[in-house]
Design a protein that fits this description.
Elements lengths: L1 E3 L2 E3 L3 E4 L11 E4 L8 H8 L3 E5 L7 H10 L3 E5 L8 H13 L3 E6 L1 H4 L7 H8 L3 E5 L7 H10 L4 E5 L5 H8 L5 E4 L5 H18 L29 H8 L3 H12 L26 H10 L3 H16 L1
Helix pairs in contact: 2-3, 3-5
Bound molecules: iron/sulfur cluster (2 copies).
One iron/sulfur cluster (SF4) binds next to helix 11.
């Protein structure tokens, strides 16, 4: 369902588990403060799913050894810098390069304040260039504005993003996923039944809709992937701001979308607002005109969303 480095996740849900087996269905086990343990290999094996080995204070001297262990066990090695409001980017990049040189996948746990593209432009791309596979964004204790940092990090299109937050419902999970998170991570104190339930609910959601972390429309505050649902930019609306952020002119946007539609079932769409499904809205927005066009094109709602996902990927590539 989701790949992070060499780890294949069955569900986009991670959980912090201190050496216990993860609840059934959870896709990724986050094992914390592993530098204090001498049974790392057993911990990874007992987790029963791909694991993140999270280190708060690994010294560079021991990092190569931990990295080799992570690579051998196909675990993701995480540097936990989430207790800081700012990071030494040069040092973080050199530690990531050190981990990658041992062949391990890497994660960086970090607070939104330390990575906000507003205050730290270029940081996400520098980390990606250093080889970072996953940004584990720690949103615990943050107010609602932190999710806009999640969206702005997602808009940079760097490493995968996993959002660690207080998640108590399907709606909480969907809010983070629709702002650009690829996965969510649950606190250690999360009820195990809830962890299994949300994992299975998101797997089913992907099966039914074809895009478990589909964005909102741009005018509803969605991240740049939402451009897949935008109409031609012919009137004043938030699409223009989104295109500016992407560095694309309105003309280029129209050309790219038409190119991406060519030869696909999205090209057609007689009777819709703009004559082609490429300009049509998200499937969750009720519209009988689009639904008639989908039936005519022989597309199910799931197939439509899968095609829109490809359009988003094509636009942001
Ligand atoms: S182009 Fe359409 S969907 Fe996109 S932001 Fe404007 S009104 Fe919303
Ligand atoms: S036809 Fe319906 S789905 Fe398509 S752009 Fe118009 S309102 Fe949106």
């Amino acid at each position: 369902m989701l790949k992070i480095g060499y780890a294949s996740l069955k569900s986009p849900v991670a959980m912090i588990c201190h050496g216990n087996a993860c609840p059934p269905g959870v896709g990724l086990a986050v094992l914390e403060d592993v530098e204090e343990r001498d049974d790392i290999e057993a911990l990874v094996r007992d987790a029963g799913v791909p694991a993140v080995l999270s280190f708060r204070s690994a010294s560079p001297d021991r990092l190569p050894e931990f990295s080799r262990t992570a690579a051998r066990m196909h675990a993701i090695l995480e540097l936990d810098l989430s207790d800081r409001d700012s990071i030494d980017l040069t040092r973080a990049c050199s530690l990531i390069k050190l981990i990658k040189s041992a062949g391990a996948a890497t994660s960086l746990r970090i607070s939104p304040a330390a990575l906000s593209p507003k205050s730290n432009p270029g940081a996400v791309k520098s980390l990606e260039s250093a080889g970072l596979d996953l940004i584990h964004l720690d949103l615990r204790g943050c107010d609602g504005s932190a999710t806009s940092v999640l969206r702005s990090i997602s808009d940079v299109r760097g490493p995968r993003i996993m959002a660690l937050s207080e998640i108590k419902s399907f709606e909480d999970a969907k809010r983070l996923l629709s702002m650009g998170a690829d996965a969510i991570s649950l606190k250690e104190s999360t009820d195990e039944e809830f962890a299994s339930w949300i994992s299975s609910a998101l797997r089913k959601f992907e099966d039914i809709t074809g895009w478990y972390n589909a964005p909102k429309h741009i005018c509803a505050g969605g991240d740049l992937r939402g451009l897949a649902f935008c109409c031609p930019p012919v009137k004043p609306c938030p699409v223009h701001g989104a295109l500016k952020r992407l560095g694309m002119t309105p003309d280029e946007f129209v050309r790219r979308k038409l190119e991406l539609a060519r030869g696909t079932p999205l090209e057609k769409g007689d009777g819709t607002c703009f004559g082609s499904l490429i300009w049509c809205c998200k499937i969750t927005k009720p519209c009988y005109l689009r639904d008639v066009a989908l039936r005519r094109a022989g597309l199910t709602p799931k197939e439509y969303m899968i095609l829109k996902r490809r359009v988003a990927e094509g636009l942001l590539r």
